[in-house]
Design goal:
single chain, 276 residues, mainly alpha, two-stranded parallel sheet, 13 helices, 2 strands, ABC-type transporter activity, transmembrane helix, transmembrane
């Protein structure tokens, strides 16, 4: 029955072109446009392109994916997640859906479809970053290479997985907030605020704990955990004492996703839907 719920939710999302575009396509397209715009500005306005530079395509992809769940990216991902997770409250359609399947399956299906959409959004980001690198190299006469730092496809897959997991912590939070607030706007504001506060706290705590193994306070922040995992994957020699906490960081991210998902399901199963 879960498979039926997933198929139905996926079909509903594919018909919601606004949610697909603004939630999962807009941020990658903006990043692509800004990259091309910067190259055009350098070529035709400043008219002094930096000579001798080489563009590493995999390096471009890794940079784009690392920022895939940044505050800007998270804003639009949560717009899409809110449309999926809280849209039935807005349109008062939960009472039509709950007789057809269990509440647990219905909410889990929504989260799984959000996860699929986030994955495709990150994949679009990676593809557009390659196109931007090729076009930018042509505009400014730069040389192209696969990677200037010896990166490979496995690094891309690793960073994609880490960023996806980071985004899913926000998606699971969105499920909780959606059930509690019954509001798409509430989901976006709460998740964006959570992401922004994490960024501030992580920056402050990093300054206080320089050259030390990260404390539990830092490791409790999904933003820091994702950054640590990406650094441990791409530049383990520069991580220092924090490298030993990479396993803990991965476990914390998984606990965030699992805990928030379980909380959302628990709340939804006990929610009164006679008034939406």
């Amino acid at each position: 029955m879960l498979a039926d719920a997933i198929a139905a939710e996926r079909f509903r999302l594919l018909r919601d072109r606004g949610a697909i575009f603004w939630g999962f396509c807009f941020a990658p397209l903006v990043g692509f446009a800004l990259s091309i715009g910067g190259d055009l500005f350098l070529r035709f306005v400043i008219k002094k392109p930096i000579p001798g530079l080489t563009v590493g395509l995999i390096d471009q992809v890794l940079k784009a994916l690392s920022n895939g769940a940044s505050t800007f990216g998270a804003l639009f991902l949560m717009i899409g997640a809110a449309a999926i997770l809280a849209g039935d409250y807005r349109w008062e359609t939960w009472r039509l859906l709950t007789p057809r399947n269990t509440r647990q399956n219905l909410l889990l299906a929504k989260l799984i479809v959000v996860g699929e959409a986030v994955f495709w959004s990150l994949l679009l980001t990676a593809i557009l970053s390659v196109f931007a690198g090729v076009i930018g190299a042509g505009i400014n006469g730069k040389a192209l290479t696969v990677s200037m730092a010896g990166r490979n496809l496995f690094d891309v897959i690793g960073v994609l997985a880490i960023t996806w997991l980071e985004a899913m912590t926000l998606a699971a939070l969105a499920a909780c907030v959606g059930v509690l607030s019954r509001s798409t706007m509430g989901v976006v504001i709460a998740c964006l605020g959570f992401r922004f506060v994490q960024t501030i706290l992580a920056s402050s705590l990093r300054m206080m704990e320089q050259n030390e193994a990260p404390s539990w306070k830092l490791l409790a922040l999904p933003v820091f955990d994702a950054d640590l995992l990406r650094a441990a994957l791409l530049a383990p020699e520069q991580v220092g004492a924090a490298g030993g906490s990479a396993g803990v960081a991965l476990a914390v991210l998984l606990v965030w996703v699992a805990g928030l998902t379980a909380g959302a399901v628990w709340l939804f199963r006990r929610q009164d839907l006679t008034k939406e």
